[in-house]
Structures are given as structure tokens and as C-alpha cells.
Design a protein that fits this description.
It is built from eleven helices and eight strands. By secondary structure, it is of the alpha/beta class. Strands 2, 3, 4, 5, 6 and 7 form a six-stranded mixed beta sheet that branches. β5, α7 and β6 form a beta-alpha-beta unit. The longest helix is centred in the C-terminal third of the chain and has 21 residues. It is globular and about 70 Å long.
Amino acid sequence: MSRPTPPTYRTRNWPAYNEALKRRGSLTIWFAPEMSGEAAPTGRRGRQQTYSNAAIQTYLSMKVLFGMALRQTTGFVESLLRLVGLNWTVPDFSTLSRRQKILAVNIPYRGSRGPLHLLIDSTGIKVEGEGEWNARKHGGPKRHVWRKIHLGIDEETLEIRAVEITGRHIGDAPVLPDLLSQIPMDEAIGCITADGAYDTRKCHDAIADRGARAVIPPRKNAKPWKTFTAGAVARNEALRASKYLGRALWRRWSGYHRRSRVETKMHCVKLLGQRLMARDFDRRVAELQVRIAVLNGYTSLGIPVTEAVG
């Protein structure tokens, strides 16, 4: 039996998408007046913060985009301000490092026109350090310096709506409820698509509690669950459908192939750097969140609209 010919796709909005790709390389930077003032009062004891969160996030975004160290980022921002004729003060590298650890990163998104279709996956990313190569060369224990990124993206807008960063020892399934908690409770979720690693009771129950439909392939040795919860009922229906149709047909019928879009988004995250430069966990979380904020800004400029032509 010959293999079926894969379909070819055509981009229907190529002029608009081409213009969006050009705008991603624009060096136009807007400095809002509120960035020069003091930060909003926190209500805590101690000295008032000098720089607002928006200013710190803007400077860290430049650091991520151009792959610079903290001192280079400070010099880069100072030169930009001199070019535009502003006499604002710029935080030094130690202030940027200290604020990065406690920064609440604002991740922009536009939102879907209807119920949210969330695509979930995870990947690993290296941490800056000596690495396994140096350990193999000079001896000593091998260092597995990895962190895991768990993402949930909007299928319609391709924007990242939920993110969690964990150690490499944390599995995929336990993080799903935390990802769902980042979606506002008043926002309707239509379906959640994930791979077979999320085929657990906790995941299905968390999805059912949000009133969403789970598109998760049952494991190859899956058995029916006792139907104590709505999530178990939905999972048993998916198990019966996959056995009746076959796994390949079930994937096409359920739309499971849409999950490839989140894998593409993982690749985009790594295009901003294959490693994390920060040295402690909280700063690494902020560094990844800044990357995601930048990616969502890129995505808002325009995405391709494709259709199958054969």
C-alpha cells in the first residue's frame, strides 16, 4: 500500500504577513513618560523603588532581543536615551539583576473571538554553565543543567496564554492544573489538546472542572476508568472512540494534529536563545517570561493564514 501524498499549503495573506515579518525587525523604540518616574508605592517598609516595572521589563526585553549581558544592556539603553535627547537615569546592572528576581512580567495577549482552544506541551532548555562537555573532558559528575518550559498557546491567535517553568525532574501532567489556573475563570475554554503524557485522572478532572473538552490520546495500554468524575467519563469515551476508529483515524477526527502548533512555538522560544543566562531560579523564570512577552508582541503583528491546496 503506497503512502498518501501529503497536502501542500498556500498562505492566503502573504502581503500582510510579509509586512508583519518586516515590522518585527524594526528598531523603533517608544519611551513612555511614565518610565522616567518613580515606581508606584508598594505599601511596604523601606526605600521606595526608583524604576517602574514597565521600565525594568523594557530594558530586560532589549537584553533578550540582542543577547546582551546586564552591563551591556545598561550601556545600550544609555546610548539610546542620549540619541533621542533624554536625560533619564538608567538602572545599573546590579539594580536590573535585583529587580529581575522579583519582577512581575506583563505578558500581553489579544484573546480569542470565541471559546479558547488551548494547546499544551513542554520542552527543555539549557542553563548557562559548564555543562556535560566540560564534565566529560575533565572528569567529575555530569551536570544535567536543564529547566522545563510548560506552555499553553491559543490555537486561533498563536499567542502564549500560560507558562510554567520547573526543574527537569517534574513531569508534564502535574503542571496542567497550574497552567489552567492562569486562564481567567470568566473566560470560556472550548477544548484542551495535549499529548499522551497528560492522560491522567488529575488532568482530565482539571479539564472537566473548567467545562472544556480534552483531546488527549489514551495510552496504548489504557484501560477504562471507574466513572466517578466527569473527567473519567470523557476519557472513557475517547478510549472507546480510539479503539473503534483506530488511533490514526481518531487523531484526524478529533483534530489532535493541531498540537503541532505548540511545538512550533517551542522552537520560536528557543530562537531567542538556546540557553538561560540567569543564575538562580527566580531570575530564570523572569527571563523566560520576558521572552514570551516579546514573542506575543511579534505574533500580534501578524500570523500566516494557510489553506490546503492539494
